[in-house]
Amino acid sequence: MQDVTHLLQSHRSIRTFKDIPIEQSIVEELICSGQAAATSSFIQACTVIQVSKGAKREKIAELAGNQNYVKKAPVFLVFCADMHRHQLACEMHKVPMKSGYTEQLLTASIDCALFAQNVVIAAEALGLGICYIGGIRNDIAAVSSLLDLPDLAFPVFGLCLGYPDQNPEVKPRLPLSLTLKQNSYSQHKTLNEADKDDIAALEAYDQQIREYYKSRTSAQKEMSWTEQISGMLQKEARPHMMDFLQGKGFMKR
Ligand SMILES: Cc1cc2nc3c(=O)[nH]c(=O)nc-3n(C[C@H](O)[C@H](O)[C@H](O)COP(=O)(O)O)c2cc1C
Hints:
Blueprint: H1 2-9, H2 24-35, E1 46-50, H3 55-63, H4 68-72, E2 75-82, H5 84-92, H6 102-125, E3 129-133, H7 140-146, E4 153-162, H8 176-179, H9 191-215, H10 225-232, H11 241-247
Helix pairs in contact: 2-6
This protein binds flavin mononucleotide.
């Protein structure tokens, strides 16, 4: 048990990999570990597309904002939320599929995240390093057509895998008081009082993150967590997403 919690709490994203290939049998073992994750109503709505090195991978790296490690990682996987085969299941039984529900978008995306995180833990247990790549959603339509994704399927994120060629420090997470609440969000206080406690905890965490960035060996920056988040939230968040998802047959009701 301690080994497992130690492994989980030692996670850090890896963006530089050794030029050592990963055996395909290991990739398949990782995918089997992903498949073993719990899945909403047994829908098994995740399909993984392994993209080998070459022109297609390079195009995806470029579309993801020129993330070089997407190009260079020994293995690159794209996790797709996929309800296409559910349509096939309905056709096999000659029943019309009721699709387009926002609930189905949620369940398929949740399935993908659980599947992927199982892959990640299995990979890290084998000494591999990983980096999720949400950047593939910058131009989700282009990535989808590169991968020939049918309606009712879309790429949720990519994942770089390889043997680490760097050893970054673990990034401190939010304090427990902010992420574990007892019985109600404000824990029997008014929301205003609870927010004051949370702001005090955020200020302490900001200090910790500022020190983390300052002391970190690579890519020094001086920024607190709330600065980082408030900066990010001044920008639009991939505003093309709703139209794209509706075009793929999701989020219509
Ligand atoms: C869904 C998802 C998408 C992400 N997308 C990217 C990405 O496109 N590029 C990148 O360098 N890191 C990406 N990350 C990694 C996060 O930046 C990283 O997990 C976070 O900063 C915490 O750092 P740590 O993983 O080292 O603890 C992503 C993480 C997740 C979970």
